[in-house]
Amino acid sequence: MLDIYVAFTPRHAYHLAKAGQKDVVLLEKSELTAGSTYHTVVGSHQPGSIRVTSIPVRVDELKYKMARTHRHPTTQWLITPEKIKELCPLLNMDKIIELDYGHIDPYALTMALAAGARMYGAQIYKPSPVSGLTPSSDGKWDVQTPHGIIRANRIVNATGIWDREVGQLIGFEHPTIPVKALKTELPVIRDLEGSYYLRQERDGMLFEPYEREEKMVLQDSWVTNGVPPGLSEFESDLDCIMDHVEMAMEMVPVLKNAGIINIVSGPITYTPDLLPMVGPHQGARNHWTAISFGYEVIHAGGIGKFLSDWIVTGEPPYDLIECDPNRYGKWTTVPYMCAKARESYGFNNVVGYSKEERFVGRPTHRITGCLPVLPRPSFRRTNWFGPVGRESNLVMEKVEVVDLTPFGKLMVKGKDSQKRLDRLFANIMPKVGLINISHMLTPTRRVYTEVTNTQLAPGEFLLIAVPDQNCTASGNTHKHLKTSHTLRSSGQVDSVDISNVTKDIGVLAMAVAGPKTRDVLQKLTQEDMSGSRVVDAGFKFLHCKPLQLAGIDLRAIRISYTGEFGWELYLPQKDMAAVYQAVMEAGQHEGINNFGTRAHTHTHTRTLMRYGLTFFFFYQMNCDTNPLEAGLDYFINLNKPADFIGKTALQEIKAKGLKRKLSYITIRTLSTRPGSTASIFLQYLQPSYRKAYKEPGICSVGQRVEVEMLGRKYPAMVV
Ligand SMILES: Cc1cc2nc3c(=O)[nH]c(=O)nc-3n(C[C@H](O)[C@H](O)[C@H](O)COP(=O)(O)OP(=O)(O)OC[C@H]3O[C@@H](n4cnc5c(N)ncnc54)[C@H](O)[C@@H]3O)c2cc1C
């Protein structure tokens, strides 16, 4: 039985074979480096690299990125213009600033990986185009090659610009679009504002620009017609990159007198968000993808190892959810794909803010209102600071509404449903009519995802999976799909029916401070909603009930994802507008309004703090999180009889003691907003608060620590 790799460069074969996997086969349709790799620049030196910039916000960006990479052993420095001049005398020093990388020959890299793969026992067949992929009922694959059919345990599609065609062999439509990339060997540093890099290539300079959004050329006809046979290179088009050439001449004046030796223009595939699709693909067992790399030469080693570790150990070595191949769905239409890829490519080298909003693909479909202007990104206080604070306060004091439809929703039924869920979740499953929060863990005890579970009827569960930051209003979220994937692939054949109802069910979440939600909802239903802010008389906390609201049948869950008092209402999408209208009209007297997801997160954290709780939630949790370190003990039931995934590993870790712990710290600064996922700027609780992991020895209240933000160290204290 073979573990085979379909196509591409040998990075995956090398790492799998090195990890001791037997029978690794690499199938290459023509020659190694025949794809995009062929067009990538050559050269293999480690001269270091300097990023230069002429705008002040870049300094914040670079400091921000450097602070984030302190966790890793990277060699990088902020250097002065004088040092730059010393290292690179060709530069025009009217332009300014700093750091980074080396470079590598893609041909040599590919051949070295191939030699390494062979050394560890992998076989390479070329030319060997794969023309058919047939799944069998036992989860294996028949791979059709000119040498006959190979039966394989699993396959990895890593076919570069041909990824769509190979995907289509099994009915996938990967949302990847080839882009024409230009490179010009001119006599020439990474100029971020000029959006190009230059480096010495033998006696000359090599110049690679990243064209502007409006100038880049999309090969959209390839999406429908396939990659043309015999493709080598595109015609050169200097006009397309002339702006960048002129900026390079200004930065490096000697270029003005240099001649062009060679122009290389080849295709690269991009996804709408420019990130590759790496991992197991939902919808086909044992089918993995490693496609659509904009920068695979530099990413080859890391991605090969990442995927190999995942295949060999059964879980990813760290979280790369942003590269999940299942993040796209039927909503990824060709026009969306082209428009979004164009925008994302155009953002190559623009300032990269944390939590920034992009423009294309809007307005998203939602029932409730939202801010009329997009937030302006900043490394400091932004224009959403005020509005989010006001929204958050209204949630705490009055009654507000948010459309949370993007939350993933799954129905799980069947005779074995409870058994299956008990194996997958670290918390007990709730009794009929009740709700709880639970986590799916990986075998080595890291958090896979957080889910709100409700047992609607005996053996019938509604699972609400948190949306990722990148979710769309269509409701197909990474985490939701991962959840569904895990469910499907987790068990033996048992009697469990899982359906994705994300698109069918809307979520209107109501949150309030004080008794005002009760007042508003009571006007619309016969159900007893009475009680105070903290004591429920009729509809109790963590209960779920069918309800008629404004004449519409729905399901109400008394939990409130805001952390504040409130209900979530689950109802068919078609009824959302009517229920929203009714709620808004009923709440006029109470001063009802809309709020957004940023206020949602903010309110959640304020509530947790009020109750002295510190834990991660929503998108803050991922495969890099240990639930005990992240304060999730309350939701982990190590005493439950079922042997849930990750239980043994957690018990071992608990016995050994934790290496770090999450706690709150206060920092005395009003202006900076660090972008880590754990940070929330609680503006009405001065000074500002953040969550931070620390060694257990420095977690006690009153402990003084320092926090680095944008290159400056601030005094902070554990609270
Ligand atoms: C001009 C240019 C400049 C670039 N500059 C850089 C840079 O500076 N740094 C960087 O990191 N990246 C750069 N890139 C991007 C980089 O080249 C690509 O990300 C990388 O080469 C992609 O590698 P890959 O293995 O995924 O795909 P490819 O190199 O395209 O390999 C895919 C392989 O699959 C094979 N194949 C296809 N279909 C089948 C089939 N049915 N059966 C068997 N085999 C099949 C093909 O023959 C091919 O060899 C550049 C690209 C271009 C075009």
TrEMBL record:
Q: Where are the transmembrane segments?
A: none
Q: Name one Pfam family in it.
A: GCV_T
Residues in coiled coil: none
Q: Name one GO cellular component term.
A: mitochondrion
Q: Which SUPFAM superfamilies match?
A: FAD-linked reductases, C-terminal domain (SSF54373), FAD/NAD(P)-binding domain (SSF51905), Folate-binding domain (SSF103025)
Residue ranges of domain FAD dependent oxidoreductase in the record: 43-310
Query: Which residues are in the GCVT N-terminal domain?
Result: 339-640
Judging by the UniProt lineage, the source's domain of life is Eukaryota
Q: Do you know which InterPro entries this protein is assigned to?
A: FAD-dep_OxRdtase, FAD/NAD-bd_sf, GcvT/YgfZ/DmdA, GCVT_N, TrmE/GcvT-like
The name of this protein is: Dimethylglycine dehydrogenase
Q: From what organism does this protein derive?
A: Hucho hucho
